[in-house]
Structure formats: C-alpha cells, structure tokens
Amino acid sequence: MIRSAVTLNLIESMSQGPWIFWHNLEESLKKAAQLGFDGVELFTRSGADLDVPHLKERLHHYGLQLAAVGTGAGKVLHGLTLTDPDAAIRQKAIDFIKEMITFGAQFGAPAIIGSMQGNILPSGNREETFALLAEGLKILGNHAGSLGVSLIYEPLNRYETNLFNTLESGSGFLERNDLSNVKLLADLFHMNIEEDNLAESIRKFGKDIGHFHFADSNRKPMGFGHTEMAPIAEALRETGYEGYVSAEAFPFPHPDAAAEQTIKAFQRFFRH
C-alpha cells in the first residue's frame, strides 16, 4: 500500500525551504497524526541529533512511522559532497551520510542523497566525477544494505546539479555501476522541470523508485500548481510501488494549511 508522509525540518538555524513542518518535534508529530499521515520524513543536523529511544516512543505514541531521513544538512551546514575534488572532504561526506543511514535504519527508514551528490568537478572531467559518485554510492549502498535498508539517490533539476536530472539517467547510472541497493527518489518538483512525460517516466523506471516526493509544479503543496496528478498516481500504482508519498513542499500559505492541503490531495489520488 502507498503511504503518506509529511516533511519536518528540525534544524533551528534554518527557517525557509521545502518542508511542511518546522522545528517542534512533538507538536509536528501530533499534527501529522491528527491529519491522518502515516509517517514523517525528517531533516536533521546529523544522525546523532535525536535521542533514538525517545523518538521511537513518540512515533509509537502517535501511530507514525519514520518514512525517510534527509542528508542535506551535510551540504547546507558543512559544504560536504560526494564529488568534491578534495578526497578528505569526500570522506567526511561519506562518514556523515553513514551516520544518517545508521540513524534511519534503526527505524527501518532509508537515507536520501540529494544535494550531497554535488556537481561536476571544477576540472570539467565528467567521467572522473561519475567514478567518484559511483564509488561513494557503492560504499554507502553496501552500508545501508548491511543494516537492512536501501539508500535513496535523488536526481535533481538542472539548476541544482549537473550530474543526473531524470529518472532515466539516474536509472542508467545505477545499472552501469551495479548499485543494486540504491534506489531513486522520484521528486515531482524536479520532474516537472526535467521530464518530458512524468507518468510515462514513472511507469518506465518504476522498478528503481524507492521514495516519492509529493509537491506541485511550483513546489507548493499539491493542488496549488499545474501538475496533472491523476495520471501520475495511476502510473505509480501500476508499478507496484509500496513506499511513501512524502510532501517535500513549501509550507504555503502556512504549515498547518500546507499539511491539510497535502493530506487531502493524497487521499484524493491514492485512497479513492
């Protein structure tokens, strides 16, 4: 069964970005449960940022699951990427993501690599860059596999990375490098910029999709843009996807309204 999730940014030094709930763990979990979400996707400073037993207890209390954990703080707060020209920084990036994987795995939740993938090396050598990315993802995918979870790699739009921008290019990269424990994140915001046909791309590469980000064409909650969601939802169901549809969207017009809009849209397209 396809499940719903809502994003929660717990980094106090951040105040804007595509997350629905902000900063207050208890209040956010309570609201997510009251609205009927199945899980939450967390964005934290590090894998050691939260007390695991406490989080497990609070999730259980509200009947929620941990859907996924984001690793973007490694890039946003520390400037770490898997394709940095400096080997020491690449190693720090791997260590940071390993910590996030270990944290999420305690809840059966995958870690997501988005901005930490980086960009083509300053030298412009694409093949060397792809080799570095494949090396990092192999190490991290194996680590995730040893803990019983997948690793999620997110193709981003061209304005955020010049590595892989579509499900097709991401899928080909995973296949060429035998990254069997790495799955793709299908993010509707990025896909609206890069894909020719969103539903067809999901249908074609569904076997590689391990997580799904639910946001409209303008990154507002679904229903506030021009995405034709019905054929996309149908395509996702056809692939047999059983993961989370998680709202990585701006808290427009404010967090509570954004969460309400999201769950209504989810129920409309995935529960009818």
Automatic annotation (TrEMBL):
Report the SUPFAM superfamilies cross-referenced here: Xylose isomerase-like
Q: Which residues belong to any copy of the Xylose isomerase-like TIM barrel domain?
A: 29-267
MF GO annotations: isomerase activity
This protein's source sits in the domain of life called Bacteria
- Key word Isomerase present in the record? yes
The answer on whether this UniProt entry bears the keyword Isomerase reads yes
Arranged from A to Z, the UniProt key words for this protein are: Isomerase
Q: Which Pfam families match?
A: AP_endonuc_2
Q: What is this protein called?
A: Sugar phosphate isomerase/epimerase
Lineage here is: Bacteria, Pseudomonadati, Bacteroidota, Cytophagia, Cytophagales
